Amino acid sequence: MSMRVEITLTVNGERVTRSVEPRRHLVDFLRLDLGLTGSHAGCEHGVCGACTVRVDGEIVRGCLVLAASLDGADVTTIEGLSDSGEVADLQAAFVARNAAQCGFCTPGMVMAAADILRHHPEADRAAIREHLSGNYCRCTGYQAIVDAVAQTLEARR
Amino acid sequence: MKWPAFAYVRASTLEELWRAQAQHGEDARVIAGGQTLLATLAFRLSEPGVLVDITRMAELRGIAAQDGALRIGALTRHAELGRHELVARHAPLLAQAVPLIAHPAIRNRGTIGGSLAYADPAAELPACVVALDATLVLVSSEGERRMPARDFFTGLLQTALRPGELIAAVEVPLATPGSRSAIVEVARRSGDYAMAGLAVSLTLDAQVQVSAARLVYFGVGNGPVLAAQASAALTGRPLGAESIEAAQAALGDDLDPSADLHGPPEMKRHLARVLTSRALRRFLPRTELAA
Q: In what order do the strands lie in the sheet with B50-53?
């Protein structure tokens, strides 16, 4: 038993090795240990979705994942997703529709919306709302966010 | 707030888990998907000394149809349950429940074993396994035992699990051509725990006569509530408006909901009656629906 755990994982395509405290969750690991501050720590108990990132290709709550458990994992954050160009059109639609107001929820929102683009290309507005229901926008700008996702899906069809 | 300090070890086999338990005793706490446990740490509702990570334990994984049952490994994540072809074919109730559980990012981590072991009275999967008359396979360093799901949930957040014991798998009897199942709930927001919900499993014969019925309500008691009277009111007669009304009337004896944040007992009873009709009407022939 050790109070520190050494992990080696891939973050946005780069291999990193760090020693972490078991109590470190993934979002703090990304923000504080790796300086990747795009993922936001909001409620830190799994409710708000601001910390949404991909682990092994699927979105997760970054605040509900132990960094110590991620040895060998493949993590993608909003920085990596942006750099890859995978959601350049979605991000442009967010700008065009004014879907980012204060911007706090936006990285998590884009990560969750990217999941719709990948897995549910036929989603209608109701399905988009359902899929984003775990991501809170306290500016309440949901209409513009759903508009941006719907517009992107439409343009990709 | 931030999690309290704890130690972390990974157990890759059950043998390693038993060793960790022997070493750390009651300080050791198993972690699988972590979607409940880690949130409780953030609230400082629990302060385990050592988290033993079981997520890479191959013996708790996998979904297979064998010996008349669908065996679902305890580490099966909700998202896998929702898209697995064998689940859709043999235990469709579980697949139908998945979209009602929390949100996609949580469904990608949370596990069926974790949901059952946590035994939240408003959670979907405990009600589903009782409705399906599933058997839980429990393991500990002492060996394996099997228990009907209906005996597993013993009280508010309480189960029959002994200290050191964990769920290895869930075994669900395979659906037959006459099997019908549905899950419905009322929640304030999509993904919230239900204010009230109902998981139904019926067997219909060729004449739409109900030969077996299990109505299991959630969010209206200390755990999943198997409504014996309402289920009996449906059994042995054709499913129709009359029998549905009889089931709704019989519910009064089955449910004893407490008031909670959502409202008083009478509101819960009302929701349960509404859900009963909503769930059962979908099995009626079209002609009767129009009437």
A: B7-10, B50-53, B28-31
Q: Are B112 and B81 in contact (CB under 8 A)?
A: yes
* Both tokens assigned to B133: 């008359």
- CA A23/CA B220 separation, integer angstroms: 35
CA distance A116 to A126: 12
List the one residue out of A108, A128, A131 whose CA is nearest residue A30: A108
- Whether B239 contacts B202, CB under 8 Å: yes
The reply to whether residue A45 touches residue B53, judged by beta carbons under 8 angstroms, is no
Tell me the sheet residues that pair with B186. B196
- Give the nearest partner residue to B7 out of A2, A46, A61, using CB atoms: A2
pLDDT at B290: 52
Q: Which residues of chain B have pLDDT under 70?
A: 287-291
Q: Are A110 and A47 in contact (CB under 8 A)?
A: no
- The reply to whether residue A131 touches residue B104, judged by beta carbons under 8 angstroms, is yes
Per-residue pLDDT band at A62 (split at 50, 70, 90):
very high
CA atoms within 13 A on the CB side of B122: 19
What gap in Å lies between CA A87 and CA A155, rounded to an integer? 12
Find tokens 């009322």 and name the residue: B186
Contact criterion met (CB < 8 Å) for A66 and B51: yes
Q: What is the pLDDT of residues B9-48, one digit of tens each?
A: 999 999 999 999 999 999 999 999 999 999 999 999 988 9
Are B124 and B218 in contact by the 8 Å Cβ rule? The answer is: yes
Counting beta carbons within 10 angstroms of the beta carbon of residue B8, is it exposed (0 to 12), middle (13 to 18) or buried (19 or more)? buried
pTM for the structure as a whole = 0.96
Residues of A in contact with B6 (CB under 8 A): 22-23
* Sign of the four-CA dihedral B227, B156, B197, A64: negative
Q: pLDDT by residue (tens digit) across B67-86?
A: 999 999 999 999 999 999 99
Scanning B132-197, the segments in alpha helix (DSSP H) are 149-152
Alpha-carbon dihedral of residues A116, A26, B54, A56, nearest 10 degrees? 40
